[in-house]
User: What shape does this take?
Amino acid sequence: MDSTSKTSFGTLSKAFTKILCLRSNSTISGDVALHKPNFSENPDELTGDHQNDIEVLLANLFAGVSAVKAAYAELQLAHAPYDLHVIHFADRAVVTQLKRLSELKQGFLNRAQLKQSSSRAQAQVQEQRNLLKTYKMITAKLEYELRSKESEISSLQSELRVSEKQCRALEVRLRPGRTLAALDDLHLSGLNPAHFLTLLRSTVKSIRSFVKIMVREMKSAGWDLSAAAGVIQPYLRRQRNSNHNIFAFQSYVSQIMFSNFQRQDFGLGGPVRDRHSFFAEFTELKFFKQKKCFERKSQFGKFCRGKYLGLVHPKMEASFFGNIAQRKLVSSGRESPETDFFEGFAEMARRVWLLHCLFFSFKEEDKGVIFQARRGSRFSDLYMESVAEEEEEAYQGGLDCRPEVGFTVLPGFRVGRTVIQCRVYLVYIDRR
Assistant: This one.
C-alpha cells in the first residue's frame, strides 16, 4: 500500500516538474482559466480572515480539478472517432490546467495576498461550468456509442435476414411444399389470388400432416379407426374401403380450424382492422417458428389455445398420452408442450392464421368468401373437387348413379374472380 502511494506521488511530482518547465504563453483561451491569486509573502496577514481565504483557495482548487477533468474527457472523446486536431487541443488544455494548479500551489506556499484573490463564488461558478462541460462531452460520447451500437444491430439484423432466407431455401429443397419461401418477397401492392392459393396448398398439407400424427396416436392407443370415422361422418359406415377413414378425420379437423374464418377477429373479439394491419401481421408471423408464435401474448396465442382445447377432447388426450398434462399446459398459456403431436398442431394453426391474415389483406373489390358444400348437394365441378377420385371412376359406368355430397372435407374459397374448389367426399345414389 505504501509503495503504491510513493510511486504515484513520484509520478505526479515528475509530471508537475515537466509542466513547470513549459512556456508560460499557452495558446489555450482563457475562458476556462482559474483566477490566479496574488498571495502575500507576509504570513501575519492571514490571521484575520484565514478561514475565508482557505475556502477561496479550496474553491479555486476544485475549479482547477474540474477543468482538468473536462479537458481529459475531451481528450478521451477525441479518440473515438479519431480527430487529431481535437486531440492536440485537448492535450494542451490538460497541460495548461495542470500548470495553473501548480501556480495555485506555489502561490499558497509563498503566502500571497488571499484578500486579492478571486471570490469563492466565482471559483464555484467556474467549477460548475467545467463540470457541465464534462457532462456534455460524456453525453456526446454515449450518443456516439449508441449510434455505433444501432448501426451494428442493423448490420446484424440484415445478416440474420440473409441467413434465414438461405435456411428457408435449403428447407424448400429438403421439404418441398412445406415452407412459405415462395411468399418471402410478397408485397401488399402485388398481392393476388395466386399467392392465396399457394398459402392454401401449404395450409392443407399441414392439416394432412397433423391428421396423420393424430391417426398414428389413435392406432397406438388401440382405437377402432372405422368406428371413430363413422361417428364423425355416418356416410363412411356404408363404405368398405378403410382408406377413406382419413377423410373423416380431415373433415373433423378442418371444420374446427376454419370455424369463424369468415370473421375478421376469428371469433376472438377485438378492434376493427384494415387490410394493411392484416398484411403486416402476415409478414411478421410467417418468419416466426410455431413455438415462438404460440408463446406470444396476442390474438394468435388465444387462437391456438382455443382451437387446441376444442379439437383435442380430454378423453382423447388421456387415451393418447395417459394423462391430460398437455391440455393443462396449453390452458395455462405459459409455454407450449414439447411433443410431436403439439408441434404438428401448432404449425397447422400458424398456417391457418396466416391464411386468415392474407384472406383479409385483399382490396374490397377482391374481398374473399369461404364456402362449403351442403350434405346431399348435387356435385358441381366448378365449385367442388372429389377427394376419392378412384370411387368416381368406378361409378362413371353406372348411368343410374348420381353423385351427391356426403360431406365437405376441406372448404373452398373465392378471392376476387378466382374460385378455389372445396374438397368433398361423394356418395353415389342409385336413381332406380
Observations:
- The two ends are 113 Å apart (CA to CA).
- The first helix runs from residue 2 to 20.
